[in-house]
Amino acid sequence: MKKLTTYILALTLFAACGPRNLISGHIEGLTNDTIALKTLTLSDYKTYTDTLVAKNGKIAYLSPHNEAAIYTFMPAQGTHKFEGGTRRFNSCSDINLFRINGEKVRFKARMDSIFVTAFTAHGSQINEDWNKIHSHINPLITKAALLQFENLPYEEFERKHTKINNEIIAYSQEYIRQHPDRLISANLIIGTGSTENMIKYADMISDEVRNSAFALTFERIEMAKERLQITKAFKVGATAPDFTLNDLNGKPFTLSTLRGKWIVLDFWGSWCMPCIKGMPEMKTAYNKFHNKVEFIGICCNDKQERWQKAVSDHALPWIQLFNPRDIDYRQDPLVLYNIKAFPTKIIITPEGTIHKIFVGETPDFYKELNNVVK
Question: Counting CB atoms within 10 angstroms of each CB, which of 28, 77, 253, 359 has the fewest?
């Protein structure tokens, strides 16, 4: 009994005077004690994962990270089973909090079914600010998520979902306008609706916040600004941006070496079912035009071994290039050609200009190829 009393006393002292890196919390209504944890360190935007087990809804986590970070606690309870699979409503089923200077943070939350319906965190001003924001936007996010259970016609679902989303965006924008000197405003920028808005609202933020633990956020926004300028330059009639990627043999291939020929760029991935479904028709076009047109497949958002297997399995005879995920955005064909969906096919003239862009698997591409290549 004496040992047990000593142990309980030690735990009490640990909770009261424990390390600054301690995050403690209590989640009411928890029916599954498994909680996934994602930590995003703000100095380098690296993500770390862990799995915790709550005891009677209580969590005590000693963070190994001394630097500023965002912590996302993801109760397994927040995963909903649909027919044919599962779905997690991250925004309204997760618990987010901040540690900026290694401070101790404590939080309370309540879950009703799969949703977090109440939340407060204490330990720093950024968490106090987040409490107020969360109390306003979380009911809206939950309302948007619940639309998926109403079996609405697609158009009505889109209309209602967009209306709620616009309310959330408007709130984030107004908060930044009113509080440009708050750290939490830096975290809200990503929710302002578009890259253009992100840039606009980042410019409102005070120098103190821009030079804070969120400094890398603003560096990334500057990169986004440059990316936006690059993508806006891409249009029909513009010079096709040059790029170099490795082929199936690992040898560099540069687009401009084909100047003087009609070129088809096919942006695809082994994971993209419409891309794969359209390959037989691409083969027919290749067999018809390969003496007059250079076909180039550019595999994106994929793993190299899966790309190689897909090329082999589907016996694709034209030039195949691999676009790695870690390529510099200034040299990334996805950025240079403003690719937003897969497949995307682009016809380039012998003079090296963009002739036409086709998004999705469409017969219009094959009709146009027949019209321009004689």
Answer: 28
